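SEVERITY: medium
COMPONENT: batch folding queue
REPORTER: lab tech (J.R.)

DESCRIPTION
The queue accepted two submissions in a row. Attaching both inputs and their returned structure tokens so the on-call engineer can compare them side by side.

ATTACHMENT 1
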Amino acid sequence: MRALAILISTGQLIACGVVGSPVPPDYVGVAPTVEKQKKQHALQAEHEAVDTGAPDLSLDGHDIGLPPSQPVGTR
């Protein structure tokens, strides 16, 4: 009798599909994803605004002394 109960409950679980608690619709779909991305972009913008104190590492306006170029391998 116990084996029959286990067999029936296993059959019902398999027939139901995914076993577990259902996901509320508030967390599924396009709108929650867009809201999450907006929050992430806002946090990134805040971090970038704070990090503007970093030194400028670009080479604009800096002259680098290079040796004069000479042709190589000409006859």
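ATTACHMENT 2
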Amino acid sequence: MARSKASDTASAPAEVTSIQELLDGLELTEIRTYLLHAERGSFETDDEARIAVSVNHEGQVLELRCKLTASTGDSELAVDRSAVFALQRPMMIPPSVMSEFAERVGVMTVYPYVREGVFSVASSLGVAPPVMGLLRAGSIKLTAVPEVLSESGS
């Protein structure tokens, strides 16, 4: 039985053309915690915290994950949390729109929760938490992560 072109068009996800269009079609539904880590010891003090950001888009779920690691001299602290967004409908999100969303909206959404987690684990350990400044929109720039080559032989 042949499918009509109209039904193919109706079932295909629409491509988002701007960050505003993406924002109009999503809602924050959850903050997930993947890691809360605090370790007391002697560590080199970092001048700045290290932040890793990843984005996962599957179906009608968009998740932006942020892992922050900081060393204070007497502790190593790490927090990995994500902001989970529900899309109102299936969407194809081009890389340029996804990057802009991650850099300007996604990171800004999850960062306060990550910063609170760092403060909390440091306090639980009994060490002074690092002072983490404000994160300004656009201050995080995404870069491609190089693929890790398999060690299985080739």
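NOTES FROM REPORTER
The chain is about 30% helix and 35% strand.
No errors were logged for either attachment.
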